């Protein structure tokens, strides 16, 4: 199963502000839908709160360590990212998308094979950040620039990255290591300088 991260990140690394996206970029929302439709999406509890409802046409998994949190209908609760990924794999998914926020991106980036990044060419105030990216572990495979226009207050670029030698950690997971992912051996140089 492919693990993909999908995120919109501004020039200062900001992804969110006070529980919301700091921008409105309709083309980015369309791309998010096009890429994730039909696949499991995995998100943190605060990202789910910001969306407010399960997204249709995708299996929605929300991560929370709080067992008292009652997921609404159409949402699967998992206590760890490893559990969420194993759930998607057990359902036969070909790809799972990690859709945020900060904590999920930090935990998920070392495991991901692909990153679909929207680089927002502006700086915004915010309180949620994307990890340092790209590191040398990643190769840019596709780039598409969109200038600012009447529907988009700032320019942005769609950037697709692939891990240079991807795949090893997902094999570790498939092998049954269900410990919290943070304790798994980090693969492929990600986060290791
Ligand atoms: N630009 C983008 O692409 C993008 C994408 C998504 C979100 N956002 C923005 O980011 C902000 C929300 O993100 P955030 O970083 O504040 O919060 P978040 O990562 O969405 O949610 C954090 C919560 O999720 C749970 N969680 C996260 N990782 C977990 C793990 N590995 N295992 C178990 N539970 C885990 C915990 O819930 P409990 O506290 O219940 O244990 C944690 O407190 C909003 O502003 C949103 O608009 C932006």
Can you give me a brief rundown of this structure?
The chain has 193 residues and is an alpha/beta fold. The protein has one domain (6-176): Dihydrofolate Reductase, subunit A (3-Layer(aba) Sandwich), CATH 3.40.430.10.
Could you characterize what this model shows?
Helices cover 22% and strands 28% of the residues. The protein is globular and about 40 Å long. Residues 174-193 have low confidence and may be disordered. The chain has one domain (6-176): Dihydrofolate Reductase, subunit A, CATH 3.40.430. It has helices at residues 26-36, 45-51, 81-90, 102-108, 168-174, and strands at residues 2-10, 14-16, 41-44, 60-63, 75-78, 95-98, 114-120, 128-129, 138-146, 156-163. By secondary structure, the chain is α/β, with parallel strands linked by helices. The chain binds NADP nicotinamide-adenine-dinucleotide phosphate.
Count up the domains. Answer: 1
CATH topology title: Dihydrofolate Reductase, subunit A
Q: What is the CATH C level class, in words? A: Alpha Beta
Please identify, by name, the CATH architecture.
Answer: 3-Layer(aba) Sandwich
Biggest sheet record: 8 strands, mixed
Cα Rg:
16 Å
Overall body shape: globular
> In order across it, which strands form the biggest sheet?
5-4-3-6-1-7-10-9
Ligands bound to this protein structure:
NADP nicotinamide-adenine-dinucleotide phosphate
Topology:
Blueprint: E1 2-10, E2 14-16, H1 26-36, E3 41-44, H2 45-51, E4 60-63, E5 75-78, H3 81-90, E6 95-98, H4 102-108, E7 114-120, E8 128-129, E9 138-146, E10 156-163, H5 168-174
Parallel strand pairs: 1-6, 1-7, 3-4, 3-6, 4-5
Antiparallel strand pairs: 2-8, 7-10, 9-10
The structure holds NADP nicotinamide-adenine-dinucleotide phosphate.
Residues 7-8, 15-17, 19-21, 43-47, 50, 63-66, 69, 79-81, 99-104, 107, 128 line the site of NADP nicotinamide-adenine-dinucleotide phosphate.
């Amino acid at each position: 199963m492919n693990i993909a991260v999908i995120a919109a990140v501004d020039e200062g690394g900001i992804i969110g502000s006070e529980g919301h996206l700091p921008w409105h970029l309709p083309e980015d929302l369309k791309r998010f839908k096009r890429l994730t439709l039909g696949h499991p999406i995995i998100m943190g509890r605060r990202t789910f709160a910001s969306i407010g409802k399960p997204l249709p046409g995708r299996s929605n998994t929300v991560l929370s360590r709080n067992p008292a949190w009652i997921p609404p209908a159409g949402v699967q609760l998992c206590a760890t990212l490893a559990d969420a990924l194993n759930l998607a794999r057990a359902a036969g998914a070909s790809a799972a998308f990690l859709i945020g926020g900060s904590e999920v991106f930090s935990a998920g980036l070392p495991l991901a094979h692909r990153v679909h990044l929207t680089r927002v060419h502006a700086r915004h105030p915010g309180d949620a950040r994307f990890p340092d990216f790209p590191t040398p572990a990643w190769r840019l495979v596709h780039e598409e620039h969109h200038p600012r226009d009447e529907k988009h207050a700032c320019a942005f670029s769609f950037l697709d990255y692939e891990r240079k030698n991807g795949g090893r950690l997902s094999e570790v997971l498939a092998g049954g290591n269900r410990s919290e992912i943070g304790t798994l051996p980090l693969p492929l140089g990600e986060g290791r300088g």
